[in-house]
Amino acid sequence: MYKRIVVGYDGSQNSERALERATELAKISGGRIKVVTAVDIAPFASFQDPGVYARLIDSAKEDAERMQSAALEKLKEGGINAEGGVLEGSPADAILTSASEFKADLVVVGRRGIRGLKRFLMGSVSANVVNNSNCDVLVVK
Questions:
Q1: What is the domain count for the chain?
Q2: Torsion of CA 77, 79, 83, 84, to 10 degrees
Q3: 3-class DSSP assignment, residue 76
Q4: Overall pTM surpassing 0.85 (yes/no)
């Protein structure tokens, strides 16, 4: 059974479902959960004004930390051994790096549903994690 579970979490409905499923599995196995939230700074790179750039990144990090704190509090109230991390970079890279460092035996992510040209150009976080993970991956609908 899975003892070290990493969950990709961005506060969306899909990531909430992923967190719920990881919680169920951790309760069954007595496992630990690491909640990973990424702040992707690439979309902010086009801002010419360094002050605006810094404020936008700071705001994104604060939002991520708030979301993560709420998720961790919920897990701990449910008796789950949990920790978290807010990382800069692409969500898939943050999840994969955290899974490796945490020595995860399972990664749980929500399905996004990106379609068309955007998916062709970017791929999806879940597909990237599935294709590049060194452990099992559960994609939750």
A1: 1
A2: -40
A3: helix
A4: yes
Q: What is the CATH number of the domain that holds 20?
A: 3.40.50.620
Q: Is the dihedral of CA 7, 8, 13, 14 positive or negative?
A: negative
**Residue 79 is encoded by which pair of tokens?**
């008796």
CA torsion, points 110, 103, 132, 112, in degrees to nearest 10?
10
**DSSP three-state, residue 46:** coil
Q: Which residue range(s) make up the domain with 84? A: 4-140
51-70 tens-digit pLDDT: 777 888 889 999 999 999 99
* Radius of gyration in angstroms for the set of CA atoms belonging to the chain, rounded to a whole number: 15
Report d(CA 110, CA 13) in Å as an integer. 8
